[in-house]
Specification:
heterodimer; A: mainly alpha; two-stranded antiparallel ribbon; 23 helices; 2 strands; B: mainly alpha; two-stranded antiparallel sheet; 20 helices
Chain lengths: 497, 488
């Protein structure tokens, strides 16, 4: 029952807020949403304390028939790969709600409802062990996110919301067809059973492309990443945090949960494609990030670049690479989330995100500058921060698989340092050029510090002692690599000719 | 089936609901002429609703009726007809409920309105039970003629008159095609009974008449496709949907579709079953065109009723995919999709009716900022729109899932892929409505109108069903599976 509780408690909370809280009582809505999300987080900690590190199997299993005529089962369970993402979601949601405390002033009740619904669906995505159930959560998440961007976003919010919705939907419907085709091949929607089913090679190739249409949009991989900068720039701060922190992880999670173990032959066959696109993402979007004048856009492009690292790691087919990729997903959730929160802090004060309008913030906001610096360094991958561990493991894994890929990817680290440090210097150091900074800017308040402290703790914890996190992954990743090493469809060459 | 037909094969008990509706409709006509104008909505309308509810209870109590026929195979009663009739009754009852206040405000609550609605329903129910082209045609014409008049029932409104006339003229052409096809088939097979036609078509030695049979089947297909507004026989739909009074549009977007799809089943799945390879090709094309028209033409619409007309063309395309795919899963898919379609459509029209004030409320832009002013109504509208777009966890997704599964299972992979692609394109205009409701600023004076109890209940029921079937689809599918399991 634990997983259902974690999944549906936020939804129940959202329902209660719709029905019980009046539109004219925003404070109650805020506290109720915070309470619900904190309760969800506390309950979800049971997943960690009760987790058996020694097994690769699924834990906290639940099964109930849902649509028996199709064999769709309400089947929930987590393993070492999905459990950390459930925790990441339940951990970031209260922070998002806290960060929207003052910045969201219109239609607070609806905002909180949308956020809690989003949390519920995202947790569902990571817990689902039935492919159709997964798809339902995956699609359902579009509704609240569409509304969050469209109602509470910036000036071009309508365009961004539509772009987000249609890109994601177009990708996922192709995945739906692949899921159905798999069902008629294997006779089940059960994810563990599908992992063991020997799909023929040609079938795998098509299914891989269909999955990729969906997951690549979500990751996002180059060249279908263009929705991300728009969505990030227009979304409210907390929306950006959830987008960068969790929604992007869903795409990479899809690759590792479905593509690799279910379609191992196709995964190997398309390895050059994945590596190629990832490298373009790492290098090209890093160069694009260098050119940005909008702070949020810069971080958005850096997200694309970092997620390129993640996909390289996941497809490196060795323990270091995959664990590095998974860890980097968590890291990116923490660091990019924090960076968007930091942008939100100055946006609340100056109502601009243009890098040229800042400068000299360190004089007025010393604590803010310090926090900003830590997360900048974590994003760059300075040793001692979490970013270093993730990038190092990924490069190590990639080096085993393909030295050239590792070499090119490493240039991304350099470029990452270039744009982050350049941005940090422009925003925080130098003279104060904008009179608004002189007059209206105050340092971070207690509520904001309270948001950053848990994130800071994680940055250094993972940076200095990543072992507890890697241990959670370990058994499942080993099992995954075994599944991915299997040749399901006979000799690939024979089938292709 | 070869037993000689008795001379007087007549079992009136099988058609009790139809008889009741027919008698009540005629009584109401008299009553309307008799009573003063003030009491007519309460009395005539009330009696109409009561009759519908009674019929619902009768059919519900009867449950799954063992397949049987009367009037020498002219009239068939089986679980399928029972299911379709219940759906048609609901598709009549709910539109009457949502238009309860609107009818009075717009002086449409004449006895004729209710009488014609009942007659249309009677025709539809006959179609669902028809075992012969003659009874099918009788039902079809009774339904169509009643709806032509209903579409033109706002006599002072030019658009409404145009809608009625257009529907009548084009509908007559379609009926002509249908009749021509029937007579060709009669000429070849020597019968108008579905069982006989099926037996004949399954037989040997048809090479020399293949051409005539194909022509006949195609003409029947065209005539019936017109009734469901499947492309390329859809031209009338947008104009008629827009011009007809909204209560009539709500009714005619739901009930006749159910009736026409039951006719599709009687004719294509039963009578023309041996010709599946032929007509499924034609239907694939029709389905594909309907999907395309429904998804693409709707994007340009600014009138919500017109948009919903195109959207219903698209929905028909999906249902036809299920019909083409066939098999248990395809048939279940058709019934599931049709049921869900009826409720989300009536719900959406119900909200249009509630928010309609003289002149405004038909254009999408009129719904600007509904989310600010009436959050509950906005939420309901969003539910219906997301459901039509096929976003889980709403019922519309279950319908699409069923259809796609049937298509993939039957090997129509290309059709399934076209279906999902058009559903992604179509999502654009549904979420555009959501955008107008939630993202735009409201006008100052907008959305002050009260919500009538009767309409409120009906729309709430529709929304509840859309949600419940989305989250617990087994509650709907189990009934459908039982219904389809008795299919021949």
């Amino acid at each position: 029952m634990l997983l259902s509780l974690v999944t549906f408690l936020p939804l129940a909370g959202a329902l209660a807020i719709i029905l019980l809280v009046g539109s004219d009582r925003p404070t109650i809505a805020r506290w109720a949403a915070l309470g619900v999300s904190l309760a969800t987080f506390v309950i979800s900690l049971r997943l960690y304390t009760g987790f058996d590190l020694t097994t690769a199997g699924y834990q906290f299993l639940e099964e109930k028939p849902w649509l028996p005529s199709f064999g769709i089962v309400y089947r929930m369970g987590v393993d070492g790969i999905s459990m950390p993402f459930v925790l990441l979601t339940t951990f970031l949601t209260p922070l998002c709600i806290l960060s929207s405390w003052e910045s969201v002033q219109k239609r607070v009740k609806e905002y909180m409802v949308a956020f809690l619904a989003l949390e519920a669906f995202v947790v569902g995505v990571f817990c689902a062990l039935d492919f159709m159930l997964f798809y339902i959560f995956w699609e359902a998440m579009l509704i609240p996110m569409f509304l969050i961007i469209g109602v509470w976003g910036g000036p071009r919010r309508v365009y961004a919301a539509f772009k987000f919705f249609l890109y994601t939907l177009a990708g996922s419907v192709l995945m739906l067809i692949a899921i159905l085709a798999m069902f008629f091949k294997a006779g089940t929607f059960s994810i563990p059973e599908l992992m063991d089913y020997p799909f023929p090679v040609i079938f795998q190739l098509w299914a891989f492309l269909a999955f990729m249409a969906s997951f690549a949009v979500k990751v996002p991989m180059w060249p279908v990443h263009t929705w991300l900068p728009d969505a990030h720039v227009e979304a409210p701060t907390a929306g950006s945090v959830i987008l960068a922190g969790i929604l992007l992880k869903m795409g990479a999670y899809g690759f590792i949960r479905f593509s690799l173990p279910m379609l191992p032959d196709a995964s190997r066959y398309f390895l050059p494609l994945i590596f190629g696109l990832s490298l373009v993402a790492v290098v090209y979007t890093a160069l694009v990030a260098l050119m940005q004048t909008d702070l949020k856009k810069l971080i958005a492009y850096s997200s694309v670049s970092h997620m390129g690292f993640v996909t390289i790691g996941l497809f490196s087919f060795n323990v270091q690479g995959v664990e590095g990729g998974l860890l980097q997903m968590i890291n990116h959730g923490i660091v990019a989330g924090a960076l968007f929160l930091l942008v939100g802090v100055i946006y609340d004060r100056l109502h601009t995100r243009e890098i040229a309008k800042f400068g000299g913030l360190v004089h007025k906001m010393p604590i803010y500058a310090l926090i900003f610096m830590v997360f900048t360094m974590a994003s760059v991958g300075l040793p001692g921060t979490n970013g270093f561990i993730g990038e190092f493991l990924i490069l190590l894994g990639a080096f085993h698989t393909n030295k050239l890929v590792a070499l090119i990817a490493a240039t991304g680290v350099v470029l990452g340092a270039a744009y982050m440090l350049w941005m940090f210097k422009k925003v925080v150091f130098g003279e104060i050029r904008n009179p608004d900074v002189e007059h209206h800017v105050t340092d971070v308040n207690g509520r904001e510090i309270a948001i950053f402290i848990p994130l800071l703790v994680l940055v250094f914890w993972i940076g200095f002692y990543p072992d507890p996190f890697l241990q959670v992954f370990h058994a499942s990743v080993e099992n995954l690599l075994m599944q991915a090493a299997v040749t399901k469809g006979g000799a690939l060459a024979a089938a292709l000719h | 089936m070869t037993k000689p037909a008795p001379i007087l094969d007549m079992n009136l008990a099988l058609m009790a609901p139809e008889i009741l509706i027919g008698i009540v409709a005629m009584l109401l006509l008299l009553l309307g002429a008799w009573r003063s104008a003030e009491t007519r909505r309460e009395l005539v309308g009330g009696l109409a609703l009561l009759t519908l509810a009674t019929c619902l209870i009768i059919l519900w109590k009867e449950g799954m009726h063992w397949p049987t026929s009367t009037f020498n195979n002219q009239y068939v009663v089986d679980p399928f007809s029972g299911f379709m009739k219940i759906l048609m009754l609901l598709a009549t009852l709910l539109p009457l409920m949502i238009s309860w206040d609107y009818l009075q405000q717009h002086n449409l609550d004449t006895p004729e309105f209710f009488v014609l609605t009942l007659f249309a329903l009677l025709g539809g129910m006959m179609m669902a039970s028809s075992g012969d082209f003659i009874s099918l045609y009788l039902g079809l014409e009774l339904m169509s003629l009643s709806i032509y008049v209903l579409a033109a029932s706002r006599r002072d409104n030019a658009l409404s008159n145009e809608a009625g006339l257009k529907y009548f003229v084009l509908g007559s052409v379609a009926s002509g095609l249908l009749l021509y096809g029937i007579s060709l088939l009669y000429g070849v097979t020597g019968s108008t009974q579905f069982v006989e036609i099926q037996r004949f078509l399954a037989g040997e030695g048809l090479e020399h008449s293949r051409m005539v049979i194909n022509l006949g089947v195609t003409l029947v297909l065209a005539g019936l496709s017109f009734k469901v507004a499947a492309a390329p026989f859809h031209m009338w739909a947008p104009d008629v949907y827009e011009g007809a009074p909204t209560p009539v549009t709500a009714f005619m977007a739901a009930m006749p579709k159910v009736a026409a799809f039951s006719a599709f089943y009687r004719v294509f799945v039963e009578a023309f079953a041996p010709m599946h390879a032929y007509w499924s090709n034609v239907f694939q094309l029709v389905a594909l065109l309907s999907l395309a028209v429904g998804a693409i033409a709707a994007i340009a619409q600014s009138n919500l009723k017109r948009m919903l007309a195109y959207s219903s063309i698209g929905h028909v395309g999906y249902i036809l995919i299920g019909l083409v795919a066939g098999g248990d899963m395809g048939h279940q898919g058709v019934l599931v999709y049709l049921t869900i379609y009826v409720f989300m459509n009536i719900g959406a029209f119900g909200l249009i009716l509630m928010l309609n004030k003289e002149g405004i409320g038909d254009n999408i832009e009129d719904f600007k900022g509904l989310g600010h002013k009436r959050p509950m109504l906005a939420l309901l509208m969003a539910i219906f729109m997301f459901s039509m777009a096929g976003i889980p966890p709403l019922a519309g997704f279950i319908g699409k899932l069923y259809i796609f599964m049937a298509a993939v299972k039957a090997g129509y992979l290309a059709l399934a892929i076209a279906g999902v692609i058009f559903s992604a394109i179509g999502a654009f205009y549904y979420i555009r409505v959501v955008k107008v409701i939630y993202f735009d600023q409201p006008r100052e004076e907008a959305f002050q109108m009260p919500v009538g109890a009767m309409g409120g209940v009906a729309v709430a029921v529709c929304a509840a069903l859309v949600l419940v079937w989305g989250v617990f689809p087994a509650s709907l599918t189990s009934t459908v599976i039982l219904t389809v399991s008795t299919f021949r």
